[in-house]
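Before the break, one more example. Copy the sequence into your notebook; we will annotate it together after we see the structure.
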Amino acid sequence: MFLLLAAAVIGKLFHVQIVRHELLKERAEENWDIEIPFGGMRGNILDRRGQLIVGNELAPTLYFMPSQNPDPKSVAGTLANVLNADAKELEEKLSKKEYMVKIAPEGKNISKKQADEITKLQIPGLYTGVDFMRYYPQEEMLARLLGFTGYDGQGLAGIEYAYDEILEGTGDRIRLYTDAKGIPLPHVDDGFASGSEGSSIELTIDLRMQQIVERELLQAMEKYEADQALAIVMNPKTGELLSLSSVPTFHPKNYREVDQSIYNRNLPVWMTFEPGSTFKIITLAAGLEEKVIDLHEDEFHDPGYVRVANARLRCWKREGHGQQTFLEVVENSCNPGFVSIGQKLGGKKLNQYIKDFGFGASTESGIAGEAKGILFSEEGFGPVEQATTSFGQGISITPLQQVQAVAAAINGGNLYKPYIVKEIVDDKGKTEQAFQPELKRQVISEETSEQVREALESVVANGSGRSAYTDGLRIGGKTGTAQKAVDGVYKDGEYIVSFIGFAPADDPELLVYVAVDNPKNSVQFGGVIAAPIVGRIIEETAPLAGITKRKKQLEKDYRWGDEMTHRVPDLTGMTKEKIQTQLYSYQIEWHGSGDKVKYQLPAVDTLIGIDDVIHVYTD
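Here is what the structure looks like once it is written out:
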């Protein structure tokens, strides 16, 4: 029996020590270990070309184990000098009856210099954990879209919040093995547990375009002393958002220093206001699709107002525009003319087109904080409401809804869902999810869309959008001027001026919307303030979108006060004597000593001012 019992004991020891060794050791270590966590590495945020917008930088965090150091007062005094913190507050934290104290916020995300200095002190019980904080190589750019992370690295606003689960990483951990009093166990080596990086997000944003847009908005804010401004650049053929901007802006690292009304409001999706005349594009598209008007054959007389029920609705031009074709109604942004189109459509049909173009509902862009806007209810959509809606008054929409709808009006009638994320990529560079253009529905026909483009190009060449005209780019667009309403009451003298433009008019590749809130120091019209901004943005971003200049373009109608311009003649192959005898009155600067002109700048047919110089090269 003794031998049998001895054999059983030996067998049990073998089973415990050899067969179940790893399992039991792991369970024991779980009772002994204390983990020092490392911060998780969040995924990067990149632009459409892979350029870094938001990354990570090393930011160590301090941890203290009270059981390993009986003198927290001395530790607090030493750390206070390095961290520039209050010694008494540190002592209170270090004296807590806990296994491990995270020294925060004083010791969280400290600099490398501070971490190196503390490491040299060799303070018992004090450990430095690896942590990370967000790095912004583009500084304030895109701040209101991107949002920011909080104290614990969690996304609190913008893209950081909306895609927090995707961006969030799990940090590494150092495992210290101690007894119940927190004293390190001499016979057990410390361990290490690996975490994983978060996935990166590649946006549809083009940083080069974003730089241009933000520069223009900041200049407009300064020039006009505006309250705020916003801009959207979209590819109307796909719904990709190439630029999304709100000013004033802020630095995501310093979000606590700015009013939350700035960092919590991404204006292109959050702000709702009366669109004004930019909304007339929708009324025009519906009228053309239903064939209730013909741009060239049908005419309308504008006396300066129109009576609807008991209301007298005025045109912006008090004396009226007189007799016009409906193309001229669009060029002149004539309110009574658009009331007429709305009446021809009828309330039910107009309301249906408004909803079909995406108003009154979220665009489903995936951008945090998106509003839906406000439309009249069917019961409240009477004759006056129908009339004011026809020219963009009395309803409330978001800028992104406006861009989505106009894109459909000019791209052949296809309503695409706007989207901001292009790809989600894991930490090894493998694509986890790719996003493609998503067609919601076709709202109007290609033939109608072509007529809309024709009318809007004419607005820029001959109408209220002439300040956006750019030679060779064939820009089309529409102005908007809307009086601000607060709590249902219009604010006297305060307007939101806007312009939505696209290029090229025959095959749109870029759609740009700009709105400036309460501008000062100027006449408050979209054609005066917003249209030139859009013109400059399109001119500078066109090469980035692969848009080349067109020869076939509507000539800009000259009006008093416009700069005198002319087309550059072809001087190649001509001699200096011949040019002089033909009495060319242009300022010509000669380069080279040859007899004939080999090439010239600017190029032939370029539109230049009368004071501009033509450079000719002979050899």
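The chain has three domains: 32-200, 207-545, 565-617. Residues 2-19 form the longest helix (18 residues). Try to locate both features in your own notes.
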